[in-house]
Amino acid sequence: MQKPQSFPRRKFLKHVAATTLALGVGPLSSLAGNEELETQVLQYNRKFSSNDMVNIAVIGMGIMGNHNAVSSLQVPGVKLIAACDLYSGRRERAKELYGKDIFVTNDYRKILQRKEVDAVVIATSDQWHARITKDALKAGKHVYCEKPMVHYIGEGLDVIKTQKETGKVLQIGSQYVSNIVFQKAHELYKSGAIGNLNMVNAVYDRQDALGAWEYTMPTDASPKTVDWDRYIEGMKKIPYDPKKFFWWRNYREFGTGVAGDLFVHLLSGTHVITDSIGPEKIYASGQLCYWKDGRNVPDLMAGIMQYPERPQHSPFQLTLQVNFVSGTGGSETTRFVGNEGTIDIRGNSLTVHHSKLPEAPGIGGWDALETYPEEMQKELLKRYNEKYSKEQQKRHNEPDMTYRAPEGFDSSLQHHINFFDSIRNGKPVVEDGVFGFRAAAPALACNQSYFKNKIIHWDAEQMKLKEA
Fold first, then answer.
1. Checking DSSP bridges between strand 54-59 and strand 78-84, what pairing results, if any?
2. DSSP 3-state assignment of 338?
3. Which residue range(s) make up the domain with 292?
4. Contact in structure between 138 and 158 (CB atoms under 8 Å)
5. Backbone angles phi, psi at 254, to 5 degrees
6. Are residues 321 and 442 in the same domain?
7. Is the residue at 333 inside a domain?
């Protein structure tokens, strides 16, 4: 296995070149200026001195922490120098993967005390996100925090306030925001390709135990290898439970369920395409239908959200679906429905389908016309054909258009590139705290709706819950 610290620059530049080509060619080239793209290629097509390096630490070395480390280390000029995890086996694995010289600890505050750390990646269980993010920003570190940005809605505004006060870079980790396919969809939607939006249907289904968060347990899991007291710090004392540590997404005390893990992706994608700031009414229903392993969150959830008319978009409804025992085998799709067509996103491709109503209202077929006397039918048809030309009676359709992300494009890598570009150049992040919170809060409101069996009202502008 290739050491993650030594990813070749050639592979990275292939990704950047593919992105540049995809964004700079064809009718959608306005997505990005060629000058900016060329600057990005030139910036990374050089050697970095030790003074130019961005030294990072990863806090939480589980699945996402390692994934983020790998993506970060593919960006030239980035070095992993420290890692934190509460399980000793992951600290040992960090040294195996990233070098014996990296600093490892079970206390994230020791990382924040190290002056040589420029930025931290936070990939802990959800209940630690806001706390560590604020501590890291106050310690002068740039922060990449996994989604959802917060565990509870009430934590969001304080995180945003802390970022503004410190001036440090804060990027939230929902890769849909940097996905070139979603950027293409944004351009198409804004160009009027599907007319006025009225409905979005978003699905993120799975059908396997790992997808349902039943991850492989280590053989040595115990209170000796897991710092349980630090894990539950600030919470009511509860006895050690390996499931609540290694399968934390299954428990409300530590995670945010399917809404916080996957609804937030679907919301991020919807917002990046429509430029929306969020819904005003939220309702969710669900059930625990298959993975009855002690979890206290549903394995199937459906949500519906009402988006009011705003300068950025017409009013529309958003439906969200996650099913962890889907007979489809699993799918990841988002459909944007307008009055003149649809944009369907599936994985790394999208298809635009056009269907525009004819100017004439139609007559005959599944119509009351044939229930009238024959002479009246003839008269109605005559009047109709006199009023509307053949052209006006036609439904004007166009061939479907399909776009696929270029070979070698990696949305996770692109999201990390955007983060490090913000650190190096001071350019705005693609998913700041405000965007991240406006995606997280409606997702977390789905949990409130499900557990309280009520409609949740949300003020997207002020980013606060409202009373009905």
1. parallel
2. strand
3. 178-357+395-409+433-465
4. no
5. -120, -30
6. yes
7. yes
411-425 and 34-44 helices cross at what angle (nearest 10)?
Answer: 90
Strand 119-122 relative to strand 142-146, pairing = parallel
Residue 334 phi, psi dihedral angles, 5° rounding: -140, 130
Tokens, residue 73: 């280390």
Q: Report the SS3 class of residue 323.
A: strand
Nearest C-alpha neighbor of 76 from the set 421, 450, 444 = 421
User: In this structure, what CATH number is given to the domain that contains residue 460?
Assistant: 3.30.360.10
Residue 450 belongs to a domain: yes
Is the whole-model pTM more than 0.70?
Answer: yes
Q: Does a cis peptide bond (omega within 30 degrees of 0) precede residue 148?
A: yes
Do 169 and 200 belong to one domain? Answer: no
Q: How far apart are CA 187 and CA 193, in angstroms?
A: 9
| E strand spans, 387-455 | 401-404
Per-residue pLDDT of the chain (468 residues; tens, 9 = 90+): 455 655 555 565 566 656 555 554 444 433 344 445 445 554 555 566 666 799 999 999 999 999 999 999 999 999 999 999 999 999 999 999 999 999 999 999 999 999 999 999 999 999 999 999 999 999 999 999 999 999 999 999 999 999 999 999 999 999 999 999 999 999 999 999 999 999 999 999 999 999 999 999 999 999 999 999 999 999 999 999 999 999 999 999 999 999 999 999 999 999 999 999 999 999 999 999 999 999 999 999 999 999 999 999 999 999 999 999 999 999 999 999 999 999 999 989 999 999 999 999 999 999 999 999 999 999 999 999 999 999 999 988 889 999 999 998 999 999 999 999 999 999 999 999 999 999 999 999 999 999 999 999 999 999 999 986
Token pair listed for 314: 């017409």
**206 and 345 housed in the same domain:** yes
In the chain, the number of structural domains is: 2
Question: Same domain, yes or no, for 226 and 295?
Answer: yes
Long-range contact set of residues 423-426: C-beta below 8 Å, sequence gap at least 24: 423/54, 423/118, 423/119, 423/142, 423/169, 424/43, 424/54, 424/77, 425/43
What's the rounded Cα separation, in Å, for the pair 129 and 156? Answer: 10
Q: How many H-runs (helices) and E-runs (strands) does the chain carry?
A: 16, 16
Domain co-membership, 162 together with 311: no
CA–CA separation, 152 and 247 (whole Å): 19
CA-based nearest residue to 121, from 110, 113, 133, 109: 133
340 and 452 assigned to the same domain: yes
In this structure, the answer to whether residues 134 and 196 fall within a common structural domain is no
As a whole number of angstroms, the distance between CA 386 and CA 398 comes to 27
